[in-house]
## 1
Amino acid sequence: MPDAPEWGDAGADTFGHILELRPVRLPNLQRYGLGNIRPLQALPPLDQLSGSYGRCALRSNGKDTTTGHWEMAGIVLDRAFPTYPDGFPSAVIDRFIKETSVPGILGNIPASGTEIIKVLGEEHVKTGKPIVYTSADSVFQIAAHEEVIPLERLYEICEIARGILDGEHKVGRVIARPFLGQTGSFYRTENRHDYAVPPPRENLLPALADEDLDVVCIGKIASIYDSMGVTKELTAKNNEQSIDQTIKALKDSTRGLIFSNLVDFDMLYGHRRDTEGYAKALEHFDTRLPEIESAMHDDDVMMITADHGNDPTFRGSDHTREYAPLLVYGKNARPGVNLGTRDSLADIGQTIAHNFGLRLNAGASFLDEISRG
């Protein structure tokens, strides 16, 4: 985005740099219009498309999970959630130790989750002290070995931390980061749990739920919105499970919104700067899109986008400030429409609201552009 230099992200280009690594086979995303959004290496635009395409700017002050997802639902944040490049202040840590009754903490630095358990995992096992760390995002992360601090206890600790981190220290998310293994071979498990700041109630999810519409959330979506407006949550801890649950939800008798997050792109490949892994995951996702299409009803519409960039070739291990791709497919939706550069991710939420005769405070609907009628 034009303001990328202000975020230290000048030159970041998630899709562009992945496709420069090697040819990435994405025939289904290509026929939706991925190659028509902008020039991409070995992914040329097509004249005949089955979907519509564009890209969304991030209007909010941030480039993290909470900020991006909230904006999709019509919440534009002028003030970013606080970050802690030098660790959390002693007032926060001291209160955390006292109220959780832990024997102290390890870390309190910005770090990669996989790296910090390599460095501090053995000491954690010996002392029972949880590992506290953050990142360039507004997060308070607590890592603990599941055989040292059981999951139920770790989640309790995180809930206490969520209550402590308020006011000037209201971080976007507190995250439980459990792991297993032995010294030299520690690995994170899929029992992560996020504790988000409750969003303002004026957003897409409760707006739909208030009209007795279904809001089915898959993966970590419910936690991002603190379950506000969620009528059904389907557990999914990786991309494959999220896709399976999406197909299951489409086959159920529901009317409203199915909201899915494919966590592996960010967690396993973007943050870990695994470009080849990212490319393979994209190809696998692409192969499963026909299954999703087959499960869709004639009046369903699928939108594919992102909450931020995460260039696996870029320095560091943090999100990157980029436009988010926007692909729209429906069996009865108008194909081949260039939706252009949208002013905000909030246009997605406004379009969904418009479809159900509702109105959000932010965003411009593109429903009329993709409707055949």
Note: The CA atoms of residues 217 and 259 lie 5 Å apart.
## 2
Amino acid sequence: MTALETGKLENKSIANPDAAFDELHRAFAAFRETNDERLAQLESRMSSDVVTEEKLARIDRALDETKSKLDRFALNSARPRLGGGVESDAIGLQHKGAFGLYMRAGEAAGLKAMEQKAMSAGSGPDGGYLVPVPAEREILRRMSTMSPIRAIASVREISGASLRRAFSTGGPASGWVAETDPRPQTGNQQIADMTFPAMELYAMPAATQTLLDDAVVDIEQWIADEVSVVFAEQEAAAFINGNGVNKPTGFLSYTKSTQAAWSHGKIAYVVSGAAGAFAASNPSDALVDLAYALKAGYRQNARFVMNRKTQAAIRKFKATTGEYLWAPPATLGGEATLMNFPVVEAEDMPDIAADSYSIAFGDFQRGYVVVDRVGVRVLRDPYSAKPYVLFYTTKRVGGGVQDYDAIKLMKFGTA
């Protein structure tokens, strides 16, 4: 694939997603053909041609770029305008009007009156006012689209400071008895709880007074546009690598163990067979081991999570039948698959390196929980960065592993 063809691919993906989708499959067909040629060269003369390697790298980059553009197109097409619908709720209309007046001119009397009427604490310890419900829902919807772990995890809304879940550490005693046999007393069930606190996530977009004075500008839409991307980027990193200090606990931050030594509170891993790489012989066997380390009940809804570089390395793997293990999306807006399991691209997953945990596999809806405290707050600050007006926007988000047996990792090492 030449540079000119790659340029045409970019133009098609922006103007016509169907053409880009077709081009993605044509590019993957070219990738398979070139990689087969490279493998034949390795078998015949123990080394591949430099030109073939460069061609394969160019096609690989084109595949990544095309898939990224299709993902962005799907995101943009799913963004409805907040001001486009008719809001029938009178209270909602009042809140929208009072919020707009506060954002544009700093007049907070209307919002304060609404809070007193509703007997709700809309202003938190740090000040600020709740954004209207439609704007909050739009921010959360966009975050679900842009934050890969949020999109596949279980999401719970709370009104307090944390989510607490009870679970049984051993389960009650049980057994089989005949119809007339006496029932022995069962042992006491051991109950413990898991706590997932909601931490504060903030962004501070700035606006000119000219923008705020423009009556055509939808203020709710503007604030949703400004904060949804940065919120999604911050929480996406935390759900994977967060240390739990003033942020969620990422699933890579928990104690890890081999599958044989696994116990509650740990995330089990399988090894790749080589330090910082897949094994030289039958490298895809490690992926099979990873998939079958997960119990069948979890495997039905399981998916792989990795970054783009790791996915590029796996894209070259073939089954013994000659079929490639990685496949492009079967439909427009679909997901790429690996061994028929969906692949989630998360750029915050680590690159392949010695003893890195670069691939996760599991049922994340059962394994990881995202906690959203209801309400997105905005505090108007016209003083700190004059002549600009800052909007200190906060949301409380938490997260952590809720089922340690539902997620498995691949460690790129030998033990």
Note: Confidence is low (pLDDT under 50) at residues 1-14, 83-88, 119-126.
## 3
Amino acid sequence: MAIPIACVAWTVTLEEIFKEPRSYCLTRSQEGKSLLERKFFYLLTCEYCFSHYVTIFFLFLTDYKLLMDDWSGYIIAGFSLVWIANIYMGLFALIRQNIKKEKVEIKIMEKKVNK
């Protein structure tokens, strides 16, 4: 379940498709009048913070519990899923960074060859 959590959190907070709402939230997080307003909108732009909300949604949707069948199973599952989802997002960020670096290096090599 951590993979779909990571996917949703990454897409909403970092991908181009949600650029406009994210820009609005980022502006409000920096220029909001109250501390509460700034922090609320920041939570919608940070992939780590947003993954907590996505996890709560998925726990509610699936009724998933970890280790215990009572309310503490939700808490353990929630923190575990957030942690794993953020590991996935970190790995994905590293992979994307390497791909971008390789593309830049290829363009530089192509320019050298074409001269």
Note: The first helix runs from residue 2 to 14.
